[in-house]
Amino acid sequence: MISLGVKPVLTIDDKGRTLFDDFLCSFSGTVCTHLVRMTDDEEEKLALLSRACLGGVTEECMDTGFELQEVKPSEAARLYQKACDSGSALGCANLGVFYGKALGVEQDHAKARELYKRGCDGGNARGCLNLGYLYEKALGVERDYIKAQQLYQQGCDGGNAIGCTNLGVHNRDALGVERNYVKAHQFFQQGCDDGDSVGCTELGVLFRDALGVERDYSKARMLFQQGCNRGNARGCTNLAFLFENAYGVEKDMEEAKRLYEQACDAEDGWACNRLKQPQFQ
Q1: Percent above pLDDT 70 for the chain
Q2: Is the whole-model pTM more than 0.90?
Q3: On the CB side of 127, how many CA atoms lie within 13 Å of its CA?
């Protein structure tokens, strides 16, 4: 009897996977997550996690989208869309950012507004913040400072520090409300305490310029330092200005120059202009 050799359907590769596994991954996200554990290649892992998300394992959508948003924004947008469609408020809010900034998709402020609203309505504080920003800046909607403040308040109440800081700006600059430095102080303080670097810097400005509080260069310096340390370039600039002019500190031109350079490197135009002055050449 003659025996015919038949190539097995379940050919095993060098990673212990079978062709059938890869076939099933196209239909079952759970299989894809199993295959992730069988490879050390980071790019391949991301590709499999993307397939897992699109195959129904929606908890993988957010983390994988975050990993891909810098290198493959269009793919990240697809994953955030899947997450959003599956009920993730964060997925909707993140996708709104992509439409607002044209990341992997065509810019569409109306679409961004819709997605931010879905995120905000679902309890995502950043979705409320970003929706408020559209109303403040009239991006795809008519400018409405009152609506913006309501949304910033939702964001602030939901734990988003930037929302608190933005409310401080509105009260300080009388945007849609009467100027109120006391409320501005309270909101900047909350924003700073909750981790927003801009909140610290803006609170420092109140103490430097005696806006609703007694002038206190020592507090201003401390707050500018907090803002600068947390990455706010204007905090570094304001701190440099104190050292340059001996406001509450000993005059120190070297420290002022160092801080202006740090702020300029972070694209603060005012700092860059100060460095062009003769005293820093």
Answers
A1: 79
A2: no
A3: 24
